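Lab notes, practical 5.
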Amino acid sequence: MLTSITDDSSFVRPKKYDPANLKILIISTPKTGNTWLKHLLATIYNLPVVYLPGELVPENLVNPGPRWISHHHFYPQSSVTDWAEQNQVVLITTIRHPGDAFISLYNHSRNFTVELFQLDSPAHLMGRDNNHNGSNSIAYLKNHFPHMLSISLSWMRSQKSIVVRYEDLWRDPVATLQKLTDTICEVPLNQLGLAVDLCSIALVRNSANAAQSKFFRTGKIGNWRKELSPEVMAIFRTLQPYPAQFAALGYTLDPNDPLIDAPPVVRKSESPFQNVSHFDNGLPISSALAKLYLSLDPVLKQGWASVEKTTSPNSFFSWLDASAYANYYLEKTAVPINNVAKYVYQERPDLQQVFPDISGSSRLDYLIWFMLHGRFEHRIEQGFIKSMYDYFVTWSNQSVDEDPAKGTDAVVITNLAAYIYKTRPDLQQVFPDIYGSSRLDYLIWFMLHGRFEHRIERTAISNMYDCFLEWSIQAVVEDPCSEASKPVLTNLAAYIYRTRPDLQQKYPDLYGKNRLDYLSWLLYYGYISCKLDREVLLPILLSLNPV
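Output from the prediction step:
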């Protein structure tokens, strides 16, 4: 039986879990600190974060591996608890003052009005209100929010999960985490402090993508005392089941309640990131960069400028993009692998297996992987990898040596285009001869699709793009109309038409009466769905201008 760590008198220490096969599922009411706790425990135990899709029903409870952490928002079910027992999954439930949870949920609905909610869901409708006293928010509070609070309450009553109070975690995170980890797998105290440093709200926010960064706000407690309106307070105070839920959760509406009003425990930390979340040039400091800094030998950091400084050559920022291998300075043509990329490699056993020698034979392959995948997976801004990026751009734009037409007027096939082709059996099947009959078709696919699929910037494909642009803007040879007064049909416009049966059906007479209609569609809608740049459409735009 697992019980709450929020009350020492009732706490029962459960059995310990095997760290080599540790699986944790945080299952609670939304906006009660489950995401923060997930980041903390993932850092402490070095667990991969996984997503469990859909409802927690047997067919969706496929064990995603021997070690992982995730979170969900569903009520207790025997299928879930049986699955957790069979797979040795640690179940944890977070609780938080309902007033703060409601404010957080309202702000969440404002920030994610489309991304995370169904358009007609009550939570989504709250996002239309200007404050939490709006009609949609009041309706949600009266009719739906009690059901959300019941998720954590139901898990508390089930005694199948370990209960963690958010206020305890906020006020004294190390002590709360120590009590929690002692029930799972004991962890050294300094490791807990490091996790708290690395999982500050600012650093976690910087580690998320642009959309998800809005998920993390201040994380403070007691905001309900100054933000909630008298109407909302009256609902909490008098409308059942709120009074019963407050009592069961251990909360009150007393603004001086010590559970809310007591200050945080002062904690000594050697981390310089307590009040620093960005470098002075605006680049964000992520949890990964903070972890890297804190792992460095103190001797190395002696004499460095303040951690946020970027202009000094003797600084953390400059060191990040410095070569990780001394022989780079001796071998001027060597592929650069900087300290950031080396750190990612050292943290990833899977990469060490795929690229066994990044200081030698695997160096170029690792750099390509890092530019196409690694920097996005680890959210590493381009400013931290300038030396590697510059090399990648130069290499990417060079014509591939294997091309028998290299140096001629043929459409260029670059190193990067050839590399992606070699790693994609599907492309090899569709374009069987990229150095011959499939050359142009592969170039077109690469410009219309491939560069977006692989998130490749224009600078890395400038040579191929120039060839594509030259071909795109030429009038299509098949056009029987030679009147200068007619809007021009370019190679690209005709190509898109030929590959879209829906357009052929809608505009059956491309070179005749449907010419203008099709070009109007392309300029008004098609350029967005096809992700076309302005340059490739310029001849069409100019031909539509009155003389």
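Observations recorded by the TA: Confidence is low (pLDDT under 50) at residues 9-13, 113-119, 207-216. The radius of gyration is 29 Å.
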